[in-house]
């Protein structure tokens, strides 16, 4: 089965032939967005907002600025004579840009040059960019060049009044790019403004979406994000199933995922970072338990209106991977009872319950079901069915895991709409062996060192 991110028919107006015979089947290509606009219109700001709202997706940003050619010594002496806003070959290395985009589109990692606006040169180190489901290409002239434009599935033009842009450019270039006001104004009137009028503004006609007010336009950004999610087929999971809770993604969490998902990560690091992620998921899951209000007196004699933790809890781990989550649960809930379930069966084969040992009074407890990976959902369904047969109400079950595949979410949530799932990331799909993609491999083997 193809990953969900690639199954939704996006890129359907791009065929393999029309894009230079790329070796990737057309339904496996990433969604490419171009963001153009005049200098300081807010392109970078808009891109960052889109990226932060797409936090569960694999997104990369490529800047056209990275492909500025380094100035040589003669050019540097007369830098104020240089036109950085012209689409000609002398200014940008568009061939390199196209080749990097082509590699990313084929699913290969690329090294993107780093550009320094103060020295007007490419500098080391370059930036390693990994393939992603969404690639955003941003820059003043990305809609001008036919070949670059032709890469895009969605073309955006950020449109802001020129006065506002000039004011922002003066501020930015004097603060961040080592310029003085006179340089900025001279460059603006000699090169930036004429090139904007001749090349950039006319490229607006190629845009699918024009965003007035740039980064202030929350509605436009939200619509764009919803459209991308729809195209990725990831749109509705949290909306269709309100019982799914994905913990808020931060760079810390992305960093931990990067480590645990990396095939090169050592067992020691895998365990360390999995434990950190598990702890976050467990803490988040506990936040979904019912509570009662309580007022206490602080040492200052003041009244604090708080809550009391839910007391009747238990954990149930699905052997063997789920056992890796027990320590975090014990660390958060002193003396918690933990039951075990062993289920046999792989892939889409039927699941068999091999062993279970659950607290006798489980039906009167809230149950935290522990299993780090939700793949097809078959094991989870078996485990949840057992809990229900023991009299645990569906509403009293919180299923905690690190990664969930959309297939598993659909299967579990359709069958058990009243339980809660707490996860740290939703992945793209399952492969033909029912492994989660991109996934993290066989969790139990990596965690317990049996791989
Ligand atoms: N909506 C906004 N309100 C205020 N300042 C903004 C806004 N959007 C961008 N800026 C500022 O204007 C400058 C240019 O924005 P940037 O996103 O870098 O534009 P571009 O990438 O189009 O050149 C930056 O200093 C940025 O912080
Ligand atoms: N060495 C350079 C290279 C480029 N510029 C200016 O940068 C502008 C593009 O970046 P934005 O973030 O504003 O889109 C472009 O207008 C160039 O004039 C520069 O000043 N020095
Ligand atoms: Mg920018």
Structure description:
Residues 249-450 form the Phosphoribosyltransferase domain. It is an enzyme of class 2 (transferase). Keywords: Allosteric enzyme, ATP-binding, GTP-binding, Kinase, Multifunctional enzyme, Nucleotide-binding, Transferase. With 451 residues, the chain is α/β, with parallel strands linked by helices. The chain has helices spanning 43-53, 73-77, 94-105, 146-149, 162-176, 181-200, 218-232, 237-240, 251-261, 267-286, 326-332, 378-389, 406-415, 443-448; strands at residues 31-37, 59-63, 110-116, 121-129, 134-138, 154-159, 209-212, 244-246, 292-297, 303-308, 313-319, 337-344, 352-357, 366-370, 373-374, 397-400, 403-404, 420-423, 425-426, 429-430, 436-437. The protein has a seven-stranded mixed β-sheet, with helices on both faces. A five-stranded parallel β-sheet has the order 2-5-1-6-7, with helices on one face. Helix 1 crosses helix 7 (218-232). The protein is elongated. The chain binds adenosine-5'-diphosphate, the ligand Nc1ccn([C@@H]2O[C@H](COP(=O)(O)O)[C@@H](O)[C@H]2O)c(=O)n1 and magnesium ion (MG).
Write a brief caption for the model.
This protein has 451 residues and is α/β, with parallel strands linked by helices.
| Regions with little confidence, pLDDT below 50 for 5+ residues | 1-27
| Chain-averaged pLDDT | 89
The biggest beta sheet reads:
7 strands, mixed
Number of strands: 21
Nearest-angstrom radius of gyration? Answer: 26 Å
Query: SS-based structural class?
Result: alpha/beta
| Sheet with most strands: strand arrangement | 8-18-16-14-11-12-13
Domain Phosphoribulokinase/uridine kinase: 32-220
Catalytic activity: cytidine + ATP = CMP + ADP + H(+); uridine + ATP = UMP + ADP + H(+)
Keywords: Allosteric enzyme, ATP-binding, GTP-binding, Kinase, Multifunctional enzyme, Nucleotide-binding, Transferase
Protein name: Uridine kinase
